[in-house]
């Protein structure tokens, strides 16, 4: 199953077309895309059995984030060995670095992003998991049952602010407006042959800069949920950015950052793509 946020309304995506959930369910489910995660099991069983009308045409430019207002966004650093190496850090053991992307940075999949003045703005394509059932002290073997679905995320990062000062400012440097695009929709885990092995990539102006597979994650989606939920409860609708593979701009020689006019396309196999255009 695929769900989307079409112009702020929850939609089921069927054969590439959008079925409005509030209308199709005669008001049983709210149009609010974030609210669905509170009743995820009930929604899934309704959607599995519902007689759905033919959907409306879907323009990706009208899509918002499939989780537009999570109570918590947890983002993971150094979760691919090749990215830890290019960043000059050891591969984390036990628990990877965790930061947040503040909720005001979240957008839909097709956006224009303003480059912060004086900054070095960089790309990080990531698989994003959205929680569908409260997870507290969850075992790794049970973790996938707490995931509503997967989507594509870009952990856009302004490196000057991220790295200034005596301790890194990961959360602020990665939370400028528009720095957390997600989408184009949420795909439930059962849709994938293997949700733990998905190709992800991103390209700047058509030139591939990152290419990886989520099977190379140091901490897989289930491992992250187990380790995070051992510390704090993960709530329905919470978002987990799982980390980025090698190929970010700051890890290149020479370093390379985004400029006005650049177009960044990010994708995950079996989900779809994001498209960000950068402006001064
Ligand atoms: Zn990241």
Helix coverage percent of residues? 10-25%
- Kindly report the CATH topology of the largest domain: Fumarylacetoacetate hydrolase, domain 2
Q: Strand count, sense and closure of the main sheet?
A: 11 strands, mixed
State the order of secondary-structure elements, H for helix, E for strand.
EEEHHEEHEEEEEEEHHEEEHEEE
- Bound molecule types: zinc ion
Q: What is the architecture of the largest domain at the second tier of CATH? A: Alpha-Beta Complex
Spatial gap, N to C terminus: 38 Å
Q: CATH first level of the largest domain: which class? A: Alpha Beta
What is the CA-based Rg, rounded? Answer: 18 Å
Q: Your description of this structure?
A:
With 280 residues, the chain is α+β, with helices and mostly antiparallel strands. It has two domains: 2-58, no CATH class; 63-279, Fumarylacetoacetate hydrolase, domain 2 (Alpha-Beta Complex). Helix content is 14%, strand content 31%. The chain contains six helices and 18 strands. It has helices spanning 21-24, 40-49, 81-87, 159-163, 170-173, 221-229; strands at residues 2-6, 9-14, 17-20, 63-64, 73-76, 98-99, 106-107, 110-114, 121-122, 125-131, 147-154, 157-158, 180-187, 199-204, 207-213, 239-241, 263-268, 272-279. The strands form three sheets. Strands 1, 2, 3, 4, 5, 6, 7, 10, 11, 13 and 16 form an eleven-stranded mixed beta sheet that branches. Strands 8-18-17-14-15 form a five-stranded mixed beta sheet, with no helix packed on it. The chain is globular. The N and C termini lie far apart (38 Å). The mean pLDDT is 97. Zinc ion is lined by residues 75, 124, 126, 155, 241, 243-244.
């Amino acid at each position: 199953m695929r769900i989307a946020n079409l112009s702020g309304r929850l939609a089921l995506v069927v054969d590439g077309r959008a079925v409005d959930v509030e209308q199709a369910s005669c008001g049983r489910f709210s149009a609010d895309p974030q609210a669905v995660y509170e009743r995820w099991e009930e929604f899934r069983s309704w959607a599995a059995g519902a007689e759905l009308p033919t959907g409306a045409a879907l323009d990706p430019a009208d899509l918002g984030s499939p989780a537009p207002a999570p109570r918590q966004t947890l983002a993971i650093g150094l979760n691919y060995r090749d990215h830890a190496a290019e960043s000059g850090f050891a591969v984390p053991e036990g628990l990877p670095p965790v930061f947040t992307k503040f909720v005001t940075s979240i957008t839909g999949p097709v956006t224009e992003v303003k480059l912060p003045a004086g900054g070095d703005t960089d790309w990080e394509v990531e698989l994003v998991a959205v929680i569908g059932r409260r997870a507290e002290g969850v075992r790794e073997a049970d973790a996938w049952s707490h995931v509503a679905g997967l989507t594509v995320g870009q952990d856009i990062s302004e490196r000057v602010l991220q790295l200034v000062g005596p301790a890194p400012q990961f959360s602020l440097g990665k939370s400028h407006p528009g720095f957390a695009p997600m989408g184009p929709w949420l795909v439930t885990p059962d849709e994938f042959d293997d949700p733990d092995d998905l190709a992800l990539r991103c390209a700047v102006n058509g030139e591939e800069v990152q290419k990886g597979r989520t099977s190379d994650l140091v901490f897989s989606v289930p491992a992250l949920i187990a380790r995070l939920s051992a510390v704090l409860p993960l709530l329905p609708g919470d978002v987990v950015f799982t980390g980025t593979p090698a190929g970010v701009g700051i890890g290149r020689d020479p370093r390379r950052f985004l400029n006005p006019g650049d177009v960044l396309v990010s994708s995950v196999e079996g989900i779809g793509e994001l498209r960000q255009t950068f402006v001064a």
